[in-house]
Amino acid sequence: MLKYLTGTAIIAGLLAIGAAGAVAQQKYTFALVPKNMNNPFFDQARDGCKKAESESNGAFECMYIGPGEHGGGEEQVQIVQDLVAKKVDGIAVSPSNAAAMAVALQAAKEANIPVFTWDSDVLPENNRLVVEGVNFIKRHTKPNPQRQIKGGVVEREAPLHASNVQLLCPECGKPTRLGKRILGDGRKVRICRKCEGVVDK
Predict the structure, then answer these.
(1) Of 1, 19, 81, 171, which is the most exposed, with the fewest CB atoms less than 10 Å away?
(2) Closest C-alpha among 23, 175, 34, 50 to residue 118
(3) Do 181 and 131 sit in the same domain of this protein?
(4) Do 137 and 201 lie in a common domain?
């Protein structure tokens, strides 16, 4: 079950933000943009996103799109720029090149497209993240009939500093800090400090 947590958490967060700002549409389109498409870590996020899509009964489409190989980030930036031009309803991206991606995501922000970063951030010095169902804020919004936004008070989750949250270990199910270990096959993985279970599968 925890295998699908990343993708579903991203989609749930995007749905909360997107639904807060828009009147009900026929179908939302959310894009999940990994660093590269041939990495099992990102496959888990894709599976979670697709699972959330199937459980939504057609409320949204999960568009999983990214570069074939992990590179300098130029292809990934172009993909995000294309998604902004297509006016998708939300973008979750794992940036390869933080500086270049920050410019592309600024364009998404100006187009009022909700954006999440996951796995890595565009501004690592901020160390902020959004947790579903925690740290709600209220925001007053002006009506905009052209974008189908009705005005009023909107409640949504606000970012928290990373130091205020902990990962739930998939092995023991307890909140934990992380350690690192190199496995026999040379892979570097994150481990739970409490049960020493491997977090990265």
Answers:
(1) 1
(2) 34
(3) no
(4) no
In this prediction the pTM is 0.52
φ/ψ of residue 179, rounded to 5: -120, 180
**Highest mean predicted confidence (pLDDT) among 76-85, 109-118, 155-164:** 76-85
pLDDT recorded at residue 124: 53
Q: How confident is the model at residue 79 (pLDDT cuts 50, 70, 90)?
A: very high
Are the C-beta atoms of residues 41 and 168 closer than 8 Å to each other? no
- Judge if 54 and 152 occupy the same domain: yes
Determine which helix (DSSP H) or strand (DSSP E) holds 170, and give its type and residue range: none
* CATH code for the domain of 117: 3.40.50.2300
Q: Which residue has the tokens 């009023």?
A: 152
CB 21 within 8 A of CB 152: no
pLDDT at position 147 is 65
120-134 per-residue burial string, b: 16 or more CB within 10 A, e: under 16:
ebbeeeeeebbeeee
**58 in the same domain as 126:** yes
